[in-house]
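Re: weekly structure request thread

Next one in the queue (455 aa):
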Amino acid sequence: MEYTKKLAEFCSTVSYDSLPQETILMAKLCVLDFVANVYGSLELDAVAAVIAYIKSLGTQGNIPALGCGFKTDLHNAAFINGTTAEAIEAQDGARFGGNHPGTAVIPAALAMTEKLKLNGKKMIEAIVAGYEAANRPAAAMHPWHTLGGFLPTGTCGTFGAAVAAGRLQSFSAQQMASAIGNAAYVMPISTGENLMGGYTVKIVQGGQAASAGLMAAGLAGAGVTGAPYIIEGSELNGGFAVITTAAAPKLEKIIDALGQHYSITDIYFKPYTACRHTHGAAQAALEIQDENKLTLSQIDKIDVFTYGIAKLAVGKEVTPGSSFVSAQFSIPYVVAVCLADGELGPQQLTEKRIADSNLIGLSNKVQIHADKALEKIYPEKTSSRVEIKLKDGSRLVKQIDIPKGDPRDPMEANDIIKKVKQFSGNRDQTTIDNVCNKILDLENITHIREITEII
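Done, posted below.
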């Protein structure tokens, strides 16, 4: 089966006029959520270091580094905007692919839309096509691609960024297949070790995928060809999906209901600045705190019961000196800071907050357990149960089966607007309202600069 070609053929024909209204709305909500994450990430020291480095290169261009006060070339703008969309770890996600398509697809689409001076409808087409190209290969390989040591946001995100850029340039099916083939050749390896080790280079995976995707599409547009069977492979080798996946990929997912169901409608949004595997525990802790108004001195012990992959991926502790990446991927830290602060946003990821000895002490009281019953219902439900034993002997218990933001308990437009405002810090709220209104009216924007110039 020619999976790559079929995906390329479809993505080259995505048209605004044929998209369902719910798909168009989701594309706009993804852009709105992207902006929230850009704002929130600008508070992080590691992000400031990335921006300073790119700025020091002195590259000239007309593409805005959003929220940074300067413009640069196509690739570096996409790199910065993808990094800021990724770093706060509140980005959108595809549950059945383990990837975060928006951090790669939207920066690439935004940069190319700006370069070509196109309108909002064209950008919506590009985003929808890009999410298909990022999500479907990721779903075909999930979770074995990640368990094999790769992060699909960087790898599959490059497919999505390349396709988004190609759609904006009206690529033929053949050119689109080359863009996908090129993407597999230039994409980042995105090693999981950097994430699991808490190294801050993890934050650039969306930006690198966006930049690499633009390069892949640019080369395809210039006539440079890539293998049009790169995902499934040929008699020469097993292809990208096979050689990067620890078990046989389910390639049929790449074309299942293609054109009938758009994967962007399956996207979840995050209310909290941490890995999605922590969200059930975070929501449970926040609800317990909201209902009981605990003081931290009342707490004797905290047990968190969850599914196996969550214990593996986010069960580790934080220690003094841990990075914000480690904190984002630590149920003990997330539960502790939710109980201590009553929220989990950008301010809970500052180096000063993470280093607080009282918070570290509380996190040390959190024990993570793999629960057979919760494992049995994963991945249909990503359940976590928090049990807090108080010093008076009483227990407080809360289980969350479907964390907020899932399509079954969605964050609506108003929820994401609140997120934009929460993450925007001290920025002028009239301007923030204007940004939100324009994004929600994206199909009527004649030039994307109407939005980018005020972010």
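The chain has a mean pLDDT of 97. Strands lie at 63-65, 70-72, 299-306, 366-370, 384-390, 395-400.
Next request, please.
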